[in-house]
């Protein structure tokens, strides 16, 4: 018996069945003007709990011990975890159990099915909590056409395509405001282009350091304008300083030579 294949097939089958039942339940609740919070609470306390209580594994302590072996499979094996844990641990332990202490005619296949049902219930319960903001979107929009209770690993729920789609439909003003804020920011930068905060100056300097090649290839005028934003000095004066640096060292004034020495001393601290 390939436990891995059976697990994957029936897990998806029962998960989809459970997911669809919840969808129909929420549609009914929405049609009856029941708040989502109340609907979810009733769902957990009735439908889900009743389903869980009927699973034979949850009624038998010996089977629960086998399930504890099953859930440790990922820490015990590198791959083929389900087949390996059944072959190496669960089969042996199951066969050693007294049949009188197990449900009538209970088989290893039924045990696997119970493992699946328990895992489905746990995952549904977990995602009803974690995906609450997405459920609110479905419920508020009264649109269950793409309803799901899934875990898109590595993606925050706000980045789910369906979340973005429903959010944009429910809160169009948010996106209009975002565009206006962007336009306002551009206007602010145009108006106050030389007024940078200390933090912004630090970030700009770091950006220039990391892009030294681009900085060297820029025109003297452009470099003067950028340095003007950092120092708060008139860009024309900065251009004069840059121009002085391009002259022969023999023409440097005593003051300028001293300025260069200070800069070099600071720079040499980098090692």
Please tally the β strands and state the result.
0
* Silhouette: elongated
Percent in strands: under 5%
Provide the helix percentage. over 70%
User: How many H/I helices?
Assistant: 14
Computed Rg: 33 Å
* Low-pLDDT regions: 188-193
Set out the fold topology.
Layout: H1 3-31, H2 36-54, H3 61-71, H4 73-76, H5 81-95, H6 108-130, H7 132-141, H8 161-170, H9 172-191, H10 198-210, H11 212-217, H12 220-231, H13 235-245, H14 254-267
Helix pairs in contact: 1-2, 1-6, 2-6, 3-5, 7-8, 12-13
Structure description:
- With 271 residues, the protein is mainly α.
- The chain has 14 helices and no strands.
Tags for this model:
271 residues, mainly alpha, 14 helices, elongated
Short description:
The protein is mainly alpha-helical. It has helices at 3-31, 36-54, 61-71, 73-76, 81-95, 108-130, 132-141, 161-170, 172-191, 198-210, 212-217, 220-231, 235-245, 254-267.
């Amino acid at each position: 018996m390939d436990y891995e294949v059976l697990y994957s097939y029936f897990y998806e089958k029962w998960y989809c069945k459970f997911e669809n039942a919840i969808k129909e339940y929420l549609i009914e609740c929405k049609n009856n003007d029941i708040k989502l919070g109340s609907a979810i609470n009733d769902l957990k306390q009735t439908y889900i709990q009743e389903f869980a209580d009927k699973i034979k594994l949850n009624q038998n302590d010996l089977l629960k011990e086998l399930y504890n072996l099953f859930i440790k499979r990922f820490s015990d094996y590198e791959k083929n975890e389900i087949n390996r844990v059944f072959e190496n641990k669960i089969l042996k332990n199951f066969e050693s159990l007294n049949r009188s202490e197990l449900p009538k005619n209970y088989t290893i296949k039924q045990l696997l099915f119970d493992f699946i049902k328990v895992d489905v219930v746990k995952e549904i319960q977990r995602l009803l909590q974690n995906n609450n903001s997405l459920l609110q979107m479905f419920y508020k929009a009264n649109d269950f056409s793409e309803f799901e209770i899934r875990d898109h690993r590595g993606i925050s729920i706000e980045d789910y395509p369906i979340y973005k789609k429903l959010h944009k439909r429910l809160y169009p003003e948010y996106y209009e405001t975002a565009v206006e804020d962007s336009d306002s920011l551009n206007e602010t930068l145009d108006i106050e282009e030389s007024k940078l905060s200390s933090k912004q100056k630090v970030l700009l300097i770091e950006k220039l350091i990391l892009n030294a090649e681009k900085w060297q290839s820029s025109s003297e005028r452009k470099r003067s304008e950028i340095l003007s934003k950092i120092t708060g000095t008139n860009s024309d004066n900065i251009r004069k300083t840059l121009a002085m640096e391009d002259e022969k060292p023999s023409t440097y004034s005593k003051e300028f030579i001293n300025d260069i020495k200070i800069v070099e001393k600071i720079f040499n601290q980098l090692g």
